[in-house]
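Help needed: design a sequence for this.
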């Protein structure tokens, strides 16, 4: 984690649950401190929400909607022949 202002490496301070910060979504909020004396940044907090889908998960869900279920499963199996059979 680098300071957004001086780009020096920041010191990890602590992890809190999002509830501690009054955020309803499940997740953690990490607090980082800039230890550069000449920098105006004091603390930076990063909030991560666990219920947010990762891009690759969204991609799979989109595939699931646009293709049928067996084609969706073939995506994981990586069976080229099976995938070809299922294609219309
Ligand atoms: Zn800084």
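Sure. Designed sequence:
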């Amino acid at each position: 984690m680098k300071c957004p202002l001086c780009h020096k490496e920041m010191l990890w301070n602590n992890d809190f649950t999002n509830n501690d910060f009054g955020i309803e979504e499940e997740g953690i909020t990490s607090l980082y401190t800039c230890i550069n004396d000449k920098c105006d940044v004091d603390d930076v907090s990063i909030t991560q929400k666990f219920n947010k889908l990762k891009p690759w998960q969204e991609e799979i869900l989109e595939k699931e909607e646009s293709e049928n279920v067996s084609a969706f499963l073939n995506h994981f199996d990586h069976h080229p022949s099976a995938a070809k059979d299922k294609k219309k």
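The chain has two domains: 11-49, 55-86.
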